[in-house]
């Protein structure tokens, strides 16, 4: 909704951080140590058996996740971080026990939350008058097979309609214990998003009212969006020739 000056609310447009350039000393947070390396990719497709026909077989690339940012984060990012930490302290919870790290990357802020405190943090972000993140637009699953001990990630996108701001929450869980608290009690619209993430990634949302598959058949084995899921498929006939199923073709893994 535009105000009389044609802007989208008091904090700028679309929840971005317009205040960070107001002062030369108000710099955005920087990645710590260039990010966190989770694996080294060799070749365009990570081929390791001579099957890479792309011409990039000699490519070596470090795959990194953004590291924690340092203060100041810039603009309203610091305000949100301060308000969240203060609200958690008022509830008797040390912020450092709930917030694993804060990442500022590409003009976006993400709070990495310990999964046992996810419900309390989400409720605080929704209800605190200085925060008011009333809307969760869904949860996305991510699978990092090389991120040992936290292979599965759930990413929540929160919007404050009151303050016109956007943030992310991210939690992780190991393959061996893929459980994350459900946020349906805080954000009811997450109902179907959590079902889809469970279906495709196998993240179990504890406390969900009816967690079930919604895309794959009920008796389907495995979770198709995981990086280690086999391609599978069926042979295809094309102009008299038969093309093998993807998992029977030349290997790129």
Automatic annotation (TrEMBL):
Organism's domain of life? Bacteria
The protein's topology relative to the membrane is: Peripheral membrane protein
Enzyme Commission number: 7.1.1.-
Q: What GO MF annotations does this protein's record show?
A: NADH dehydrogenase (quinone) (non-electrogenic) activity
* Compartments, record wording: Cell membrane
Leader sequence residues? none
Provide the reaction this enzyme catalyses.
a quinone + NADH + 5 H(+)(in) = a quinol + NAD(+) + 4 H(+)(out)
According to the UniProt entry, the coiled-coil residues are: none
Where along the chain is composition biased (Low complexity)? 1-17
Q: Where is the NADH:ubiquinone oxidoreductase 30kDa subunit domain?
A: 112-233
Against SUPFAM superfamilies, the record matches this protein to: Nqo5-like (SSF143243)
Region Disordered: start-end pairs: 1-36
Q: What is its main location?
A: membrane
Which InterPro entries does the UniProt entry name for this protein? NADH_DH_suC (IPR010218), NADH_quin_OxRdtase_su_C/D-like (IPR037232), NADH_UbQ_OxRdtase_30kDa_su (IPR001268)
Print the keywords alphabetically. Answer: Cell membrane, Membrane, NAD, Oxidoreductase, Quinone, Translocase, Transport
Listed under subunit, the entry gives:
NDH-1 is composed of 14 different subunits. Subunits NuoB, C, D, E, F, and G constitute the peripheral sector of the complex.
What family is reported? Belongs to the complex I 30 kDa subunit family.
Q: What does this protein do?
A: NDH-1 shuttles electrons from NADH, via FMN and iron-sulfur (Fe-S) centers, to quinones in the respiratory chain. The immediate electron acceptor for the enzyme in this species is believed to be a menaquinone. Couples the redox reaction to proton translocation (for every two electrons transferred, four hydrogen ions are translocated across the cytoplasmic membrane), and thus conserves the redox energy in a proton gradient.
Which named protein is this?
NADH-quinone oxidoreductase subunit C
């Amino acid at each position: 909704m535009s105000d009389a000056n044609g802007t989208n609310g008091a904090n700028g447009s679309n929840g971005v951080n317009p205040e960070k350039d107001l002062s030369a000393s108000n710099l955005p947070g920087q990645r710590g140590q260039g990010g966190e390396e989770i694996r080294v990719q060799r070749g365009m497709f990570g081929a390791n058996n001579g099957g890479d026909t792309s011409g990039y077989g000699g490519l070596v690339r470090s795959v990194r996740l953004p590291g924690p940012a340092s203060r100041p984060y810039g603009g309203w990012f610091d305000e949100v971080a301060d308000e969240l930490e203060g609200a958690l302290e008022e509830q008797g919870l040390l912020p450092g026990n709930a917030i694993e790290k804060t990442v500022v990357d590409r003009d976006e802020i993400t709070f990495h939350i310990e999964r046992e405190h996810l419900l309390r943090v989400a409720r605080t972000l929704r209800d605190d008058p200085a925060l008011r993140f009333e809307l969760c637009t869904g949860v996305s699953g991510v699978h990092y097979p090389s991120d040992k001990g936290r292979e599965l990630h759930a990413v929540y996108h929160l919007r404050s309609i009151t303050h016109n701001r956007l943030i992310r929450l991210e939690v992780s869980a190991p393959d061996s214990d893929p459980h994350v608290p459900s946020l349906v009690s805080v954000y009811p619209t997450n109902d179907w998003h959590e079902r889809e993430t469970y279906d495709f990634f196998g993240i179990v949302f504890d406390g969900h009212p009816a967690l079930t598959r919604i895309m794959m058949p009920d008796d389907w084995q495995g979770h198709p969006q995981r990086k280690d899921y086999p391609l599978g498929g069926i042979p295809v006939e094309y102009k008299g020739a038969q093309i093998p199923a993807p998992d029977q073709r030349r290997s790129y893994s």
